[in-house]
Amino acid sequence: MDTVAAMLADEEFVRRKIAASGALDSTQEVIWEGEAFTVTTRRQMPTDQVPSSFRSLVGQSLDVRLVEAWEAPHPDRSRVGTLSLDIAGAPVRVIGRMSLQPGPDGGTVQSFSGDITASVPFFGKPIEKAAAGAVDQVLAVERSIGLDFLAGR
After folding, report:
1. pLDDT, tens digit, for every residue of 93-134?
2. How big, in percent rounded to 5, are the helix, strand and coil portions of the chain?
3. What is the Cα–Cα distance from 125 to 120, expressed in whole angstroms?
4. From CA 54, how far away is CA 11, in angstroms rounded?
5. What value does the CA radius of gyration of the chain take, rounded to a whole number of Å?
6. d(CA 134, CA 45)
7. pLDDT beyond 90 at 49
8. Cα–chain center distance at 137
9. Residues 4, 73: Cα–Cα separation, whole Å
């Protein structure tokens, strides 16, 4: 679990996952406090993945801010953390919990849970559904990048 946590805080890994997201521009910051760390990224994202019926609400690009705050490891080296994703100018917010736990094969299991909310009258549920699909795609890409990153170590 320590290896996976170190990867999540590694600036090269963060750069790779930002690049894979298709960001037009980005910044990143990793801050350590003892064994706890926070990764904050800002990405300017194209709106090509936003359903066409909602693009007029968001413009030509999205300013996405993601904060992943990981607590120090527990005695068994497992970790928990929180995530917060905000999209400037769009009525969508993601708040969640994440964890790193021991896997059955001696590996590490990373899990996420959370809520996606869209504060648009009449259109909230379709926007939330579209956002959930986008989050699932991002997690799949990040998993793939993570496996490649760890294999190269």
Report:
1. 889 999 999 998 889 999 999 988 877 666 666 666 766 666
2. 35, 40, 25
3. 9
4. 33
5. 16
6. 12
7. no
8. 11
9. 12
Place of tokens 């990981």: 70
Confidence band for 11, pLDDT divided at 50, 70 and 90: very high
Residue 108's φ and ψ, nearest 5 degrees, are -125, 140
**Is residue 83 predicted with pLDDT exceeding 70?**
yes
> What region, left, alpha or beta, does residue 128 occupy, with left being phi > 0 and alpha being psi -120 to 50 degrees?
alpha
> What residue ranges in the chain does DSSP mark as E strands?
25-33, 36-46, 61-70, 79-88, 92-102, 108-118
Residue 130 · residue 120 · CB < 8 Å: no
Predicted pLDDT of residue 22 = 86
